[in-house]
């Protein structure tokens, strides 16, 4: 008989009790065109008190209290931002599995190395399986919205091993131990986790290994406060830790990291995952795992006044943020506020143009040509800016700008250590709750983000990388990190980040005010997930004046209402005083820490 992983009793470990008392408000999400979640009471999103410590030497902001505690402990003990970021990724995979997984998902991350005085971009995204069949995904009866057919090679573990090789200092065993302990001792089922389980329960019922972990013994969704044990995941993590130690103890740390990479991609874990996927209609092979290697890449960047903005390069959609900022830099926002219809209209229209260009031009850079230099040029920004009119809106279908010129389920967090290193991490699975057999690993569903339309640069092909929604950012001033972070929610990500940038730079908000301010999203472009709908609606969170909505309607926008749009975190370092601040989104169980 299979042992249930849910205990119908509160999780009462001393660590969890102490942490849970300090947790922020637990709140669910609603589904609004790719913003994944469940209906729940809506909390106020007005800015709370900004957390500032004048001489803090480290900072961290995540949406999960346990993960923040893990990262804070490492930073307080003198670990660098790279090591702490990995420890957070491991811990949050256990405590908040509905959003990301460091063994089964994908990760984009930016890292400022203070010694090298350089920003690096981690591409921890794997390719589609070598056996994928385009016609399979064009058949709506076969291309269901959940299952092994949607899994790409999980890139995040190899990405993290490369990250630790390049920037880390601590042993992998030390960094993984908090996550192992959490999986073994158990974490409470939060309101958010329960909500997502309710949303996905019919899918989960079709996946016995997933149901074994996340449902009670009688096959029901657990109650809030029940204890979630993840013994299979704990065993897998221990195997990876031991593979590291077997080499590190008689060789060195780097050899240990390579051993941990090989154990996953060219060893027992890949074998188990491929067996599971093959038995359930998947397209990923052992060779796909063995041949995959994550990359450390150069970020893309643009200038906005005296600021340099870094983004994850394609195949990430991060370029859409930079395209929009280039357009917006040419507008005068003096005398306007963040809730004025004119400000919102400009930001929305620039955002649309960036996202439309991503649809038309961005795919796997190894398979398609992506005109990055053109898309980020001043002449291009000027031409795109000319497409924006005060009294009309851009709607889909729409051409990409180059043509005009010629005629659920993501985690983001930010850290800085006492040495000046900074990390902005966004990591995801692309869906909730799909466990790979008895490994305990929650697998991604990223094939849902590849296109079936002929001629699209993101068209499904064997071994091709998906056009990825994940895209953390980093803003530099005077050559040093100024503020950095991310926003969750598929197509919401660059949109929320653009708004937070503008609120800080143009409207003078603090990081806390920026992440708490009501958000809006437009869908005047194909959604990143199948079936790629474009509603041409503009969704506003509660908190905007009725007069703003009416004026936006007069300009041509079709207004929809949304309860909660994504989740964001920001760290800011004053370029003159080095004073640290954080913005921890009040929409979720966020917690930020500024160290002393």
Task: Put the structure in a nutshell.
The protein is built from 20 helices and 20 strands. By secondary structure, the protein is of the alpha+beta class. Helix 5 runs antiparallel to helix 10, helix 13 crosses helix 16 (378-385) and helix 13 (319-328) runs parallel beside helix 18 (492-505).
Keywords, separated by commas or semicolons:
single chain, 596 residues, alpha+beta, 7-stranded antiparallel β-sheet, 20 helices, 20 strands, 36% helix, 17% strand, globular
Per-chain topology:
Blueprint: E1 6-10, H1 14-20, E2 52-53, E3 59-62, H2 65-76, H3 81-95, E4 106-113, E5 118-124, H4 134-138, H5 156-167, H6 172-185, E6 187-188, H7 191-205, H8 208-214, E7 226-228, H9 231-248, H10 253-265, H11 268-279, H12 286-291, E8 295-297, E9 300-304, E10 307-311, H13 319-328, H14 341-361, H15 372-375, H16 378-385, H17 401-406, E11 410-416, E12 422-428, E13 473-477, E14 480-487, H18 492-505, H19 511-516, E15 520-522, E16 537-541, H20 546-554, E17 558-562, E18 568-573, E19 580-584, E20 591-594
Parallel strand pairs: 16-17
Antiparallel strand pairs: 1-7, 2-19, 3-11, 3-20, 4-5, 4-12, 5-8, 6-7, 9-10, 10-13, 11-12, 13-14, 14-18, 15-16, 18-19
Helix pairs in contact: 2-3, 3-6, 5-10, 6-9, 9-10, 13-14, 13-16, 13-18, 14-20
